[in-house]
Amino acid sequence: MKYPLCMFVYIVLNGHLFGQVIDSFGDGDFSNNPVWVGETGSWQIVTRASSGPNASNSYTLRLNAPDDNSSSQYIATQKSGSWGGEQSWGFWIGRRSSSPATSGNYSVVWLWANESNLESTTVDGYRIRFGDSSGDDEILLQRVDNGNVTTILTSADAIANGLDDIGFLIRVTRNSNSIWTLYTSQLPTASGELYGATTTPTPDNTPVNQGSVTDNTYTSFDDGYFGFMAIHTTSSIARQGAEFDQLYFDPNSDSSLPVELSFWRIRNENTTVIIDWTTESEINNLGFIIDRREIAEDRSPLISQSDWIKIAGYKTDHRLAGQGSVTHRTHYSFTDTDVRPHRTYQYRLSDVDYSGNVTNHGIKTITVKTEAIAWGAACPNPFNPNLRISLQLAEPSPIMVNVYDLRGSRVASLIDETLSEGRYTISWEGKNDRGIPVPGGVYFIRLRSKSDTKIQKVVLIR
C-alpha cells in the first residue's frame, strides 16, 4: 500500500509507531510532494522494481544515468524546520540483476546533509554506503566533512560479494547523546532475495543490530536534506543498477528495541563455539534463547527454517536470564560444545519479554576449525577417584595416553590405538594396569599422537 505524499503522517505497523514518510514515490514522480533537486535527469520512477522479490505497483526510484556516462548521480530533498533531538531513518535498497555492488557501482543514502548539492566540496553530513570490491559488502555509516568521507561504523554482518537481484531494509537511529545505531533486516545470502520494494521499514523487520558508534561532530540537523546517490560505471546495466524506495524519517525517535544490543558475535575456540553479546539497556526482559542449525558448504540450510534447534534458554540456564528493566550495560556469554570440526553452523539470538513476545536479533554463521588434537583440562582436579579428560580429533590419529608418577615410572596405560575423527572422553579411576588403587599424590598424564605430545599434571586425593 502506498501512502499519500501530500502530507507527513505517522503510521502504526506491527505494533510499533514508526516514522514520517518522506517519499515512497507512489505518485510516480519526484517533482513535487516533496520536490527533489539535483541530477533529476539521471533518475526515473518505475512501476515495478527489479531488485529482490519483484513487486507490482512498487513505484520505485531507479538510477537512469545517461549513455556512456561514468560518475555519480544524486537527488536531494529538504525537510524544513526542526529535526528534533533524536532521529530515526528507514529505507529500502535494491541492486538489480547482473549489477552487484562493487567499488565502481555502489549505493548511497544521505541521512542528513547541510546543503542540496551532495557532490559539493563544502557539503557536511551523514550517509549510508553499500558496495565495495574488497571481500564481502558491509554496510557503512559515514560522516562527510567538506566533501571528505570518513567511515565511522562498519556493519557486523555483510552481504556476500557478487550477489545481485537483492533487496533489503536499513534503519538508523541517533539518540540525544549522539549514539548512532545501525539496524538491518535479515541480509540476503543468495541472489534473488529478500525484501521487495513495497516493504515499509519498521523496528520489527529491521531487528538485526549491526553496531553502534558515538559521533557528535554534527548535532543540529534543522532544515537539512535527505538524498540518494549512485556511483556507476559506463555499462548500460550499471547505469540502471541501483534502486531505492520507502524513505521514512522520525524526528522524535522512540523506535529502539526493548533490548538494545551494542554487539553480539560468535567465535571459534578449539572445539567450541562461543557466543558473546552485550546489552546497553533492557526493558521487561525475561531472558535469551539461542538456536542453532547446521548448513551445507554452499551455505544452504541442511534443515528447514522451522527446524532450528534450541540449544540454550533462560528457563534452563540462569546465565541467560535477563535483567528485567535496567539502563546499565550487561555482558552475556554462552559456549556451545556440541559442534564438530569443519562443519558450518548458523546461530540465532532472541530475547523474550514479560508478555512472551520474542524479538530476534539476527543470524550469524561460523565454520568450526580446530587443532588436529584438542585436549581438554582434567576434571575434576584434584580428584578422587575418577578423572575425566575430553579429547577432540579433527582427523584419524594413533593415540597413546599413559599415566606416570613423580619418578617418571609408568603407572597406567589408558589408550593405545588409532582413533577416528570425533570427540572422546578419557577416564582414569586412580588404578594401575593391574587394577590396584595407587597412592594419593601427583601424577602426570601424557598424550602422544603422530604429531604432538601433551602433558597434564593431576592430583589424586585419598
Account of the protein in words:
It is a single chain. The chain has 462 residues and is mainly β. The chain folds into 3 domains: 10-250, Jelly Rolls (Sandwich), CATH 2.60.120; 260-367, Immunoglobulins (Immunoglobulin-like, Sandwich); 373-460, Sandwich (Immunoglobulin-like). Helices cover 0% and strands 51% of the residues. The protein is built from no helices and 30 strands. The protein has strands at 10-13, 16-23, 37-38, 43-46, 60-63, 72-78, 87-95, 106-113, 125-130, 137-145, 148-159, 166-174, 179-184, 208-214, 225-231, 242-250, 260-269, 272-295, 309-313, 321-326, 330-336, 344-353, 358-367, 373-375, 387-393, 397-404, 410-419, 422-428, 441-448, 453-460. The strands form 5 sheets. Strands 1, 2, 4, 5, 7, 12, 13, 14 and 16 form a 9-stranded antiparallel β-sheet that branches. The chain is elongated and about 95 Å long.
Topology of helices and strands:
Blueprint lengths: L9 E4 L2 E8 L13 E2 L4 E4 L13 E4 L8 E7 L8 E9 L10 E8 L11 E6 L6 E9 L2 E12 L6 E9 L4 E6 L23 E7 L10 E7 L10 E9 L9 E10 L2 E24 L13 E5 L7 E6 L3 E7 L7 E10 L4 E10 L5 E3 L11 E7 L3 E8 L5 E10 L2 E7 L12 E8 L4 E8 L2
Antiparallel strand pairs: 1-2, 2-16, 3-6, 4-5, 5-16, 6-15, 7-12, 7-16, 8-9, 8-15, 9-10, 10-11, 12-13, 13-14, 17-18, 18-19, 18-20, 18-21, 18-22, 22-23, 24-25, 25-28, 26-27, 26-29, 29-30
Radius of gyration: 28 Å
What are the low-pLDDT stretches, counting only 5+ consecutive residues below 50?
A: 1-17, 299-306
Count of β-strands: 30
How far do the termini sit from each other?
Answer: 77 Å
Oligomer: single chain
Question: Number of helix segments?
Answer: 0
